[in-house]
Each structure stands twice: as C-alpha cells, then as structure tokens.
Specification:
globular
Length: about 120
Amino acid sequence: VQLQASGGGLVQAGGSLRLSCAGSGFNLDYYAIGWFRQVTEKEREGVSFISSRSDSTYYADSVKGRFTISRDKAKNTVYLQMNSLKPEDTGVYYCAADLYGLGTPKESEYDYWGQGTLVTVSS
C-alpha cells in the first residue's frame, strides 16, 4: 500500500502546477484524500479535501477559487490543480488517505501518507 505524491516544482507567481496523488495496492475510491502543506518550522495545514463517497470537496480559505481537487478513478489518482500561485503557497505538499472518510483537515483521521512533493513559488 503506497501513496505517491508528485508534480511539484518551481514556478513563478501567477503560474500553475498540477499535483498528483497516485495510489498503489489499494483503491482510492474508498478513501477521502486530503492535501496538506508544510512550510519549514510551521505547522502542517490542510489545503484541500475530497470525500470518499460523494466526492464532496473542501478548500482552505487561502486557496479557495485558485485550487481544484479532483479524482480520476480510472487512474486511481487524485489531482490538485493549483492556479494563480502565490509565494505563500510555497511548501512541501503531502497527500493522505482516510478510509471511508469525509475529507477533513484533522490529520489523525488519515491512514496513509505520501512522501511529499516540494512546491516553490517565486515572486
């Protein structure tokens, strides 16, 4: 069972990136997926979530209107499309999976975590 986060990189402010969270060894359809980010010496914060049953989506206020989370069931992958990126979006982005979850920012709810992918937004 493994989650693989990818798609990070260096981008200028105003640019876009698409992060991927791919599952291997288990079916992500049964899991809520959360994207979290961490900036050095700061607490990890929840960014965006998609629930397991209804695919309801939730966004932190700081990314609402700029980020979109979506699920590709055929590829067993969840994406985070990030547009209009700002320097304050810089951080290591982690995806996490919560079996039958509602998709919440509560980290203790999540069963599996990916390894993180670095996003750097230059001004």
